[in-house]
Write a structure and sequence with these properties.
It is built from 24 helices and 18 strands. The chain is α/β, with parallel strands linked by helices. Helix 2 packs across helix 18 and helix 22 crosses helix 23.
């Protein structure tokens, strides 16, 4: 079997592989590249795209994007990271409105979306209706805790879902959360798994490019142990750092020299947030040196990790699902002290690559449950985080153990990097996705059931709003060429064709329509004649042409 990189080299040199013309084509609705504030989701998506194109397991990559702005932005990015692939025409950037036509004419191997909460169920519906083959459709989880995600996940529970569809969970606890969502939704709406199946759930982590994150050559040469916290600096959307200050205070009270420690805080900062000034005051009262690096670039980030001794992340917020900074720290050869929470429990091997601090939380949250749908997400996330306990005595003990043991830090840091190289590189992640897409193809699908299964949350506009007009187009509606149509046929007038309509209205078909309607003709006969001379369109497309022509005086209604 030829690998993607081998095929890529053959393309580059123009060799004929002597194989049947069966292309493996990857598709998506998303750019994966988003400029703007540095957030975990954005970093993960950008890195995924870079790794996918680098590993190159497919012949072509098709992106169906919303507008010219998205297309130009992604084109600029891809020209930087994969110029040869772009030059060879293996990366195709389409408008989203061209998707039905492409699905009907191209056999895709799979479609993958950067977030399972957006369009995945609707993508499966379009595939079922339009595509020649039922290819796998997958989407990835990121944060799972937003109040409107119940409705987003409910969209996945419908009879058109197949066993070739999957939600990719980055952590085992994230996977369990999605299972909990589906169980809760089925219970609340009286659904069964047989009548309302869900996509399969698969676990594939996020990754790092380990070559970009190399351990520093030396640390703590000045005798100061540097504790690094890297991520969003936010008590309501990432983690409350007050327990860390309390833990450090315990150590100082027990005799540890505060001058032997430096706390380094780095990441995205909201300039209007009042938390950071208060936090600085608390750290100053403990006597520990604090350095803050707001919104560091990549070079600063590397320098910060390489000059630190211990990485700390005490997440207490359900927005956190995986924890990509922990595998970055591992790649840098840092031991990590982390809360025993969410995806952190998949990443850190307690006592081997770092230390996990026990956490505690509520079994029920009735007050947040009723408030969250009608309040801002930062408010209910803060309420949840403030009742998620990171046990301070255990945190202080973990800090003490690693601060006082440079040899143990070195052993754990080495083990952490080895674990990252083994399980959390982007190359390994992409291999996991390719294997998943191939495995999903082997799943059985009852095409007869899913082909004409409408999605209940996709509004049938004609059926829902058809009563707005005084009448609807019927098979016996009589039509004839209008004045504008006659002028258009003779080349003396040209109809207005808006940009967003050009892909669905074919003016050659319209001209044939005028010819057929030289004399009054009923709609059913006109549509039959159009389909006969334009086999690329069906009855539905022909009807759309008729209505558009009526709107623009190319046809007129004979009463």
């Amino acid at each position: 079997m030829f690998t993607g990189k081998f095929i890529d080299k053959m393309w580059e040199y123009g060799f004929d592989l002597g194989m049947p013309e069966i292309k493996r084509i990857w598709g998506t609705l998303d750019p994966f590249y988003e400029p703007g504030p540095v957030l975990g989701r954005k970093v993960a998506n950008i890195k995924f795209l870079g790794a996918l194109l680098s590993e190159n397991p497919f012949d072509e990559y098709h992106f169906f994007l919303m507008d010219d702005g998205q297309i130009k932005s992604l084109e600029k990015h891809v020209k930087k990271i994969a110029p040869e692939m772009m030059k060879a025409g293996r990366i195709k950037l389409h408008h989203r409105r061209d998707l039905p036509e492409k699905l009907a004419s191209i056999d895709f191997h799979c479609f993958h979306l950067s977030d399972c909460m957006t369009s995945q169920p609707y993508m499966t519906r379009m595939r079922n209706k339009v595509s020649r083959c039922i290819f796998p459709v997958t989407g990835t989880i990121h944060s799972l805790s937003y109040a409107n995600f119940g409705s987003a996940l409910l969209r996945h529970l419908w009879p058109g879902t197949t066993r070739r569809d999957a939600i990719v969970c980055t952590s085992s606890l994230g996977l369990q959360t999605v299972e909990n969502f589906f169980a809760w939704l089925r219970e609340g709406y009286g659904l069964t798994q047989a009548t309302h199946p869900a996509p399969q759930l698969s676990q594939i982590p996020l990754g790092v490019t380990a070559e970009e994150f190399l351990p520093g050559k030396s640390r703590s040469e000045d005798g100061v142990v540097r504790l690094l916290v890297f991520g969003r600096i936010s008590h309501y959307s990432k983690m409350d750092l007050v327990p860390l200050v309390r833990g450090l205070h315990r150590l100082v009270q027990d005799g540890m020299d505060p001058g032997s420690l430096e706390l380094v805080l780095a990441g995205w900062v909201d300039d209007k947030d009042e938390f950071l000034p208060k936090f600085k005051g608390m750290v100053a009262n403990v006597g520990v040196s604090l350095t803050v690096h707001a919104r560091p670039d990549e070079a600063e980030k590397v320098a910060l990790f390489q000059s630190s001794d211990i990485f700390i992340s005490i997440a207490d917020n359900p927005q956190e699902t995986f924890g990509i900074t922990l595998i970055e720290a591992g790649a840098f050869g840092l031991p990590t002290i982390a809360s025993e929470y969410d995806g952190y429990r998949d990443i850190i091997v307690d006592g081997e690559t770092g230390l996990l601090v026990p956490t505690m939380g509520p079994a029920e949250t009735p007050d947040v449950d009723i408030l969250s749908p009608i309040t801002y997400d930062n408010q209910y996330h803060l309420m949840l985080a403030q009742r998620t306990v990171v046990e301070i005595p255990a945190l202080a003990a973990a800090l003490k153990k690693l601060i006082e043991s440079p040899g143990l830090r070195q052993i754990m840091g080495k083990a952490a990097r080895e674990r990252v190289l083994d399980k959390f590189t982007w190359s390994t992640v992409i291999q996991g996705y390719v294997a998943l897409w191939d495995e999903l193809w082997a799943e059985p699908v009852d095409e007869e059931v899913v082909r004409n299964c409408a999605h209940p949350q996709a509004i049938p506009y004609g059926r829902t709003f058809g009563h707005y007009t005084s009448q609807t187009l019927a098979s016996d509606t009589m039509l004839k060429a209008g004045r504008t149509g006659e002028a258009f046929y003779r080349g003396k007038d040209f109809p207005t064709l808006y940009e967003g309509i050009k892909s669905v209205i074919d003016l050659d078909v319209v001209k044939k329509m005028v010819f057929f309607a030289r004399k009054a003709i009923d709609t059913a006969t006109l549509i039959r004649k159009l389909v006969a001379v334009a086999p690329d369109i069906g009855d539905g497309e022909a009807e759309n042409h008729v209505l558009w022509a009526l709107k623009h005086d190319i046809l007129e209604h004979v009463k």
